[in-house]
Amino acid sequence: MTTSPLERAPITSATDIDLSDWDFWARPMAEREHAFQLLRDLDKPAFYAEPEVSFAAPGVGYHALVRHADILEASRNPEIFCSGSGGATNIVDMPAEFIEYFGSMISMDDPRHARLRRIVSRAFTPKMIKQFEADVETAAAQIVTDLLAAGPGCDFVTEVAARLPLKIICDMMGIPESDYRYVFDRSNVILGASDPEYVSDPAAIATSLLTAGMELQQLVQDLAAHRLGKPTDDLTSSLVNANIDGEQLTAQELGSFFILLVVAGNETTRNAISYGLRLLTVNPGQKALWLDDVDGRAPGAVEEIVRLAAPVNYMRRKVTRDHVMNGNLYKAGEKVVMYYWSANRDDRVFAAPYRFDITRSPNPHVGFGGPGPHFCLGAHLARREITVMFRELLSRVPQIEAGQPERLFSSFINGTKHMDCTF
Length: 423
Ligand code: HEM
What we know:
Elements: H1 29-40, E1 47-48, E2 62-65, H2 68-76, E3 81-82, H3 96-102, H4 112-123, H5 126-150, H6 156-161, H7 163-173, H8 180-192, H9 205-227, H10 235-241, H11 251-282, H12 284-292, H13 294-309, E4 314-319, E5 323-325, E6 328-330, E7 335-339, H14 340-343, H15 379-396, E8 401-402, E9 406-407, E10 416-418, E11 421-422
Parallel strand pairs: 2-7
Antiparallel strand pairs: 1-2, 3-4, 4-7, 5-6, 8-11, 9-10
The structure holds protoporphyrin IX containing FE.
C-alpha cells in the first residue's frame, strides 16, 4: 500500500531517496525527475537494499547506475556485469519456478545467450521482416480509420497505441485474432503486476505472474504442435522447425522466448506511442515542425520519443568480480541497476535534456539498452511501428491531442494505462 501524496515528504536531497521504496514510484513525474537529477549529481552511485517482494528473499543490494557513462560501460562489459544469475528484468533474484517462464535470453549470458540469439535472429529472415513492414502499414491505417469512426473522447492507449504492437507481435507468432485479448491481458499482468488494476491483491502477485506465464506457454505449445513438421509462414513455425547447424530450441526455450517476445513487443512500443502523443500535445511547436515534413522528420522524432519515454526503466546486472568502473568499486556478488530513463536525461550527454526536440542530433539515448549483446532485438520493428503510427495520425488526424495520462504503477515500466484523446 502506498502513502497518499499529501503524506509524502518532499525530496530535498539524495538522502531522501529510496528507489526500493514503492512509494517513490507513485510520486509525480516532476518529483521523479528531480530525484534522479540529485542522484546523477552524487560523486558515486547510491547503494540500496533490495525491495521487499512476497515471492523472493532480498539479496545483498544494488548500486543505482543513473549516469549515461556508467550504463554504457556496464553494458559493454557483460563478463563483469552479467545478466544471468537471477534475471535481468528484476532486482531481487528470480526464484527457480519463475525461470521456466521468464528465464529467456534477456536473463542469460553467453554462450547460452549467444546460442539462443543466433537461432532466433536467423528466424527473422529478410522476407519475414519485409512482410512485417507491410503489415505494420495496413494495421496502422485500419486503427486510424477505426479511431475516426469512434470519434474523439476514446482511450488512446487501448484503442490506438496498444492495438498496433499487439496485432503485429501476434501476427508474427501466428496467434489468431480471437486470442489477442487473451495475450493482452496476460502481458499486462506480467509487466504490470504491481499495479492494482492488473493484480488487485499484492499477496497474489506471485501466483498471478506464474499463471499468466503458464497460460502463455500453453498457448505457444498448442501453436507449436500444429506447426511441427507442417511449416507455416510465421515465426513460431520458423522457431519450431529451425534447425540451424544442428541447433534447435527446446520446448522450454521456445515457451520462455515466446513470453519474452510477446511481453517485450507489446508493452514497450505501446508506451512509446502514448508518451509520444502526450509530448506532441504539450509541445505544439515540435508538433508543427513534424507536421511540416512528416516523413523527413520522423527518424529524429522517433528517437526523441524513445529517449524521453524510456518505456523500459531499467535492467539489472550482477557483478561477477571486483571491478573499478569510472573510479568506483563494484564488488563481486553485488548488483547494479541501470536506469535508462535517468541516463536519457543526463546533461553530461544531452543539452537541455528535458526539452523535447525532434531535431536533436546526435541522440545517443539508451532507450533500447546500452551497447552490448542484449541490445533490443526488436528495436528495428519498434522504430517502424512508431514511425508508421505517427505518420498515419499526423496525416489523417493532425489536430489530435492527448488528455492527462493515467500512469502505470511500476518501477520497471514507464507506462501509461489510459489517456483520453480529442480531435
Ligand atoms: C520502444 C520499444 C522498445 C523498447 C524501449 C525496448 C527496450 C529494450 C531494452 C532496454 C532491452 C534490454 C537491453 C539490455 O538488457 O541490455 C531490450 C531487449 C529485448 N527486446 Fe526490446 N524494446 C522495445 C521493443 C521491442 C520489440 C517490439 C520486441 C520484439 C519484437 C523486443 C524484443 C526484445 C528482446 C527479445 C530483447 C532481449 C534481447 C537479448 O537479451 O539479447 N523489444 N529491449
